[in-house]
Specification:
Helix 5 packs across helix 8 and helix 14 runs parallel beside helix 15. Strand 18 and strand 19 form a beta hairpin. The radius of gyration is 22 Å and the shape is globular. It is an alpha/beta fold. It contains 15 helices and 23 strands. The strands form five sheets. Strands 8-7-9-6-12-13-14 form a seven-stranded mixed sheet, with helices on both faces. A six-stranded mixed sheet has the order 18-19-23-20-21-22, with helices on both faces. The chain has a five-stranded parallel sheet with strand order 3-2-1-4-5, with helices on both faces. The protein folds into three domains: about 1-90, 3-Layer(aba) Sandwich (Rossmann fold); about 100-305, Mur-like, catalytic domain (UDP-N-acetylmuramoyl-L-alanine:D-glutamate ligase, 3-Layer(aba) Sandwich), CATH 3.40.1190; about 315-449, Mur ligase, C-terminal domain (Protein-Tyrosine Phosphatase, Chain A, Alpha-Beta Complex). The N and C termini lie far apart (about 50 Å).
């Protein structure tokens, strides 16, 4: 079957393409922006990519068009599909029908940490010999691909609350029907599709409604929004993590790189790993709870976590030049920025830390998070904010509210010059964006040579 995917370089759609190829389909796709790591992964899988949405790519007609949620009416390829009456489907619906049917789905939902936690969970099951399938919105370094079918009934999926397609405004995760569900945390995000936090809570409740009574819901005790979701009705056993929960930790190092795990008061073992930050400790607890639900004893899960490598673009060390370390991070929400910088600060002590941030997500462009930004960067020594041409609000006014030195730059060259003038051996530079950032990571490393 020839499947053509519109919006194929999105992390979800690209991963779905890999699964379709593994099922034996002829897969092609197109996107407005074709860039790594997804483009590289797709080309390595022999998937043909087209830049742009010229309807010519749909002639001869494929057997099925899978339409990504970034596509909207008015897009030339979408209009062609509708006018010609070509069969089409959303990505989540295709996945539910052709991959998840009849499997034990372990879903990881939440505002932050979905990619990292899904990667941890897939790795823990792999380490235990369970050969899970998975679809993750990033490339886990333990696997080097973002999706595979796997060899057993178990399938780990990053369960996103974003909408499914222009013709299906339900959150993606309502299609997945998980048996084990991690609800990591819940804050306001995706201001382009949700008016407020209660609207997102409602979608999370739709997810909870789909989880069987023989399943398991895992959530932290410290998230008021998730407690409200559960109070709307829950027909499934629940396990809680964190303060006062069944799963707890005792930090053995301040940066979160070593901690003891307790389940129902009994010590299960110690995780010692390369990760930092309280958020990753919380992700690990939820992972151990989910893995135990499918039969992985905590001690085995702990051994797996100690061998876990992070996901590409999650505090990934991309270069070290003349003693200056450059990291790439996906953070694009004030909470994620704050927890990432906090974890690194605890690891590097007083070493100089420069944060470079691109407010690129739809919520950022709409200004939904701007009030939280000044507070999110307090652990940096200085911040460089990148102001793209289409930002609809005054980034300079936000930068002026920061308690650490902050400047706004509208060019990559300006950012590079600033870092060159400020960074010295021992400096750590974190580049934060949920896009390619114009290849800044490589350009900066080259300039520092």
């Amino acid at each position: 079957m020839h499947i053509h995917i519109l919006g194929i370089c999105g992390t979800f759609m690209g991963s779905m393409a890999v699964l379709a190829k593994e099922l034996g389909h002829h897969v092609t796709g197109s996107d407005a922006n074709v860039y790594p790591p997804m483009s590289t992964q797709l080309q390595a899988q022999g998937i043909e990519l087209t830049q742009g949405y010229d309807p010519a790519q749909l002639d001869p007609a494929p057997d099925l068009v899978v339409i990504g949620n970034a596509m909207s009416r008015g897009n030339p390829a979408v209009e062609y599909v509708l006018n010609k009456g070509l069969p089409y489907v959303s990505g989540p619906q295709w996945l539910a029908d052709h991959v998840l049917q009849g499997r034990w789905v372990l879903a990881v939902a939440g505002t932050h940490g979905k990619t990292t936690t899904s990667s941890m969970l897939a790795w823990v099951l792999e380490h235990a010999g369970m050969s899970p399938g998975f679809l993750i919105g990033g490339v886990p370094q333990n696997f080097s691909v973002s999706a595979r079918l796997g060899g057993t009934p178990f399938f780990v999926i990053e369960a996103d609350e974003y909408d499914s397609a222009f013709f299906d405004k339900r959150s993606k995760f309502v299609h997945y029907r998980p048996r084990t569900a991690i609800l990591n945390n819940l804050e306001f995000d995706h201001a382009d599709i949700f008016p407020d936090l209660p609207a997102i809570e409602r979608q999370f409740h739709h997810l909870v409604r789909t989880i069987p009574s023989e399943g398991l819901v895992i959530h932290p005790t410290t998230e008021p929004a998730l407690l409200r979701v559960i109070e709307m009705g829950c027909w499934t056993p629940v396990q809680t993590t964190g303060a006062g929960g069944q799963w707890q930790v005792k930090l053995l190092s301040e940066d979160g790189s070593k901690f003891e795990v307790m389940f129902e008061g009994a010590v299960q073992g110690v995780v010692e790993w390369d990760m930092t930050g309280q958020h990753n400790v919380a992700n690990a607890l939820a992972t151990l709870a989910a893995a135990r639900h499918v039969g992985v004893v905590p001690s085995m899960g702990i051994a797996a976590l100690s061998a876990f490598k992070s996901v590409k673009r999650r505090m990934e060390k991309v270069a070290e030049v003349r003693g200056i370390t450059i990291y790439d991070d996906f953070a694009h929400h004030p909470t994620a920025i704050a927890t990432t910088l906090d974890g690194l600060r605890k690891r590097i002590g007083d070493a100089p830390l420069i944060a470079i941030i691109e407010p690129r997500s739809n919520s950022m462009k709409l200004g939904a998070h701007r009030d939280g930004l000044p507070e999110s960067v307090v652990d940096a020594d200085q911040v460089i904010w990148y102001s793209p041409a289409n930002l609809g609000w005054d980034l300079g006014a936000t930068a002026a509210l920061c308690t650490v030195p902050s400047i706004v730059s509208d060019s990559l060259e300006g950012i590079i010059e600033r870092v060159k003038s400020q960074a010295q051996p021992g400096t750590h530079v974190v580049i934060m964006s949920n896009g390619g950032f114009g290849g800044l990571h490589g350009k900066l490393a080259e300039a520092l040579q």
